[in-house]
Amino acid sequence: xxxxxxxxxxxxxxxxxxxxxxxxxxxxxxxxxxxxxxxxxxxxxxxxxxxxxxxxxxxxxxxxxxxxxxxxxxxxxxxxxxxxxxxxxxxxxxxxxxxxxxxxxxxxxxxxxxxxxxxxxxxxxxxxxxxxxxxxxxxxxxxxxxxxxxxxxxxxxxxx
Amino acid sequence: xxxxxxxxxxxxxxxxxxxxxxxxxxxxxxxxxxxxxxxxxxxxxxxxxxxxxxxxxxxxxxxxxxxxxxxxxxxxxxxxxxxxxxxxxxxxxxxxxxxxxxxxxxxxxxxxxxxxxxxxxxxxxxxxxxxxxxxxxxxxxxxxxxxxxxxxxxxxxxxxxxxxxxxxxxxxxxxxxxxxxxxxxxxxxxxxxxxxxxxxxxxxxxxxxxxxxxxxxxxxxxxxxxxxxxxxxxxxxxxxxxxxxxxxxxxxxxxxxxxxxxxxxxxxxxxxxxxxxxxxxxxxxxxxxxxxxxxxxxxxxxxxxxxxxxxxxxxxxxxxxxxxxxxxxxxxxxxxxxxxxxxxxxxxxxxxxxxxxxxxxxxxxxxxxxxxxxxxxxxxxxxxxxxxxxxxxxxxxxxxxxxxxxxxxxxxxxxxxxxxxxxxxxxxxxxxxxxxxxxxxxxxxxxxxxxxxxxxxxxxxxxxxxxxxxxxxxxxxxxxxxxxxxxxxxxxxxxxxxxxxxxxxxxxxxxxxxxxxxxxxxxxxxxxxxxxxxxxxxxxxxxxxxxxxxxxxxxxxxxxxxxxxxxxxxxxxxxxxxxxxxxxxxxxxxxxxxxxxxxxxxxxxxxxxxxxxxxxxxxxxxxxxxxxxxxxxxxxxxxxxxxxxxxxxxxxxxxxxxxxxxxxxxxxxxxxxxxxxxxxxxxxxxxxxxxxxxxxxxxxxxxxxxxxxxxxxxxxxxxxxxxxxxxxxxxxxxxxxxxxxxxxxxxxxxxxxxxxxxxxxxxxxxxxxxxxxxxxxxxxxxxxxxx
Lengths: 160, 787
Description:
Chain A has 160 residues and is α+β, with helices and mostly antiparallel strands. Chain A has helices at residues 2-29, 52-62, 76-86, 89-98, 110-115, 143-159, and strands spanning 31-33, 37-40, 43-46, 66-71, 100-105, 123-127, 133-138. In chain A, strands 5-4-6-7 form a four-stranded mixed β-sheet, sandwiched between helices. In chain A, strands 2-3 form a two-stranded antiparallel ribbon.
């Protein structure tokens, strides 16, 4: 009986330590999105479906194209797409410097997804600063496919 | 007017009240009169629910879209099997299935025990209370709700757009991912498993409350049955993920699949506790009933996870108004079981057993129970705290850089210890204890040493993955363990199982012998499943985005790494029972045989599209499609024009009715056609227009170093409600699967992902052994009192 009690207490302490540690690790290392921003693949995105108009205002002021990224936490391909494609150094540089980035969570921003005709993640919608859709890129494409697209759209918008 | 289905539900609620009052009055005042009504009332309840389920199935089979639920999950053009499986495609139907099976078990309990013992009566009370609560939940979200009660429809009726007797003509359709055989069996397995957990739970509560003996026997078969169904449900879900989702694996730690795995783990713990408890009533006298209760609570929790919408999962089946009701149910159950458990604990802690040191069977079994609980807790915590953070702080967090990493690193060490415990316990022998301890220590030593072996790719976490770099130090530390360390304990467990099997085979009497074989089967299954899971997830080879031009049909196309693909055929069809394509009047060779007879007149031909050329034309027509139709006798071009883009594709079966012209020169294609058919889009009929579900399938062969290693059909299903991939899976005798995902034709190329997955068949074999083993154990049940 004493042995059992001892083992139980040790296991309980271990469990509590595990719970405490993993909880805090998740908060400090793996926050994916808060009220205003999403952090996906090491890139900061604007969030909040309600502030969508605001995002377009900023895009108009800075004359930047908008890239809207639809993702979901359960999406098997998104995580890899974020690190490999969006996180590709060349793609990432262009996106961060020349684009206004908006991330839409398919679990929360369902109405926006419906409005843009997006039914599955990952999905990219490229728009000019006025919200006109320039190109759609559905699915987890690779960096060498996406790079020419982000370059062309940026140059097109700049030229106007 | 209340729909008939709801009336049936209310009626079953009413008869349950009669049964309950009867049982309680027998309990309190020993009134026999009402007691006579109990069994008939329960059977009536079960009958009414059976009738209501048949009614729902009837509505589905006859596509009665006056019912919201039918409209939502079915459509008239689905084959019969998917119409029937539509009944459990959504929340409302699964609740009905759940409560139906609870009442069937209540009826079974009533008939087998005749409520002769206090235990049986009290267990029935708890079962009925649970069942009635589930009926109320079913009524709140009734599958029999009419479509005219839908808020959007109510608005439209108020505006006068729709009439109050509105019935939609077509159904919304079943989610494309669910249009698959495995998905027709997965939900019923799960929910029948959930439902049959009620009786072991009820018996355990009665035992905690009144210390009624025989509770374990009463619930034993039900618990095993739940274990089988839940286990098979999870496995079939895995098969589905493997064959349909194109995850390339059968397990991805998705919150919902994890949620159903958690009660299965604690239930496994319960079965182990019960095995010792039944031999000595003092052993695990609290642990065993608590584990049964916890398993039931976790079943309810799993139901919340599936349906609440808080747990972001690929299973997001819409948000729920009944989540709160389930939460209340859980709250009450937890409260009751804590109070009862505590009371029993303080009552029993007085009579201390003598301490026989750590190394005895009870203690090692206790460690095993704890290991199951720890593994269950890791999974429970991993799916729950992100949802908790999201609800309380509005943040979305991941559990690790890659979700599965979290579960893999934390579960891995405990899985090894579990295998060690399996090896030690299964072969435990009091007399040879010292020798066995020595063996165990050697295996532990080997496990620890092999953890540090350096290999190229064989670690708990994949070092080549982009996520590896971003994991925190502790995760990297565990992730750095070599997976070779699983093998000593795995071999030990397998060896131990075989030793035990030899002992069982020596037994003369048949029943214990067969039961022993069952036990050995289950434990050998564990080893096989782990082997398959670990090998397949570590050694899968993937070649992504192999784009094969459709034009190269019949040729072997190299896709790198020594692999090649040959496309044999491409076709499209619609998934419906009948596609009324009218047949053509003449064969194409007949037209070529006597063109003067048919030229400058209308002819109707049918055949398969062999080639498509789409061109833009000057307004007003804008789009022209040139289709080369082949009917096996010959081929002919047909042209059709429209204002919107036309989506004819290679492989479609079409019937074209059109005007036959000779010597037509087209400026847009720069070709002169000897004979060409001109028709309008509405003169062309075929799969393009009929059916909501369109399937593109590509038949192909896979080669490695010019040697054929696999062949078959990969499909892509498209529907308004989403799309699904049905990969080609070709297994070989060596256990390696050739796995090809086809993502739908795009721009004349066939995009493929090729995976070579080794050893996955071991896991399926393990699952089969699980099932065989537990069925043997169940079939050889020893005498049962009161159950």
